[in-house]
């Protein structure tokens, strides 16, 4: 599946750093606690849907999320060896393209997915490369996905995860700009009952810019 490629990229960056591939300067000149705020957009992704109904049958398909809104806030602690632990809250909302569904219904169908939750991230600053510090990380947490269609909406809680990579640019010893990419797997949405079963899963490619402050 697509998300395996994202995990492989992040794990590859971590492995390269562990082997000393960059042989860079000391990464964390000022280890300690920090806060970070980020905004961006889920620019692409995939929504996979499986549905079945008694006496009718089953069907599955993929829909395309449109570019949407992303925001996050994090508190973390950076260690001298380049690793950092973060507690992060995220929010993301995307409208969903429903071209094939429009044809089936004979009318435009408005659909969207809204996700919020909290994750614990393990981050690694690979090494200073010119004026920037590349980093990679993985996170797992718990959240809620709310799907809306044809004026109605329903939500489901579950596990969410992400793979991250990017670069930070130190403005001064306490402040850094962050330019990041993340592959976010949102909680699986499920509805069952009265002979109907529906599952939906949205994965997003997110680009963001953030501000980090060490204190």
Automatic annotation (TrEMBL):
Residues 1-21 form the signal peptide. Residues 13-214 form the Outer membrane protein beta-barrel domain. Keywords: Signal. Pfam families: OMP_b-brl. Coiled coil: none annotated. SUPFAM superfamilies: OMPA-like (SSF56925). It comes from the Bacteria. This is Porin family protein. It comes from Phenylobacterium montanum.
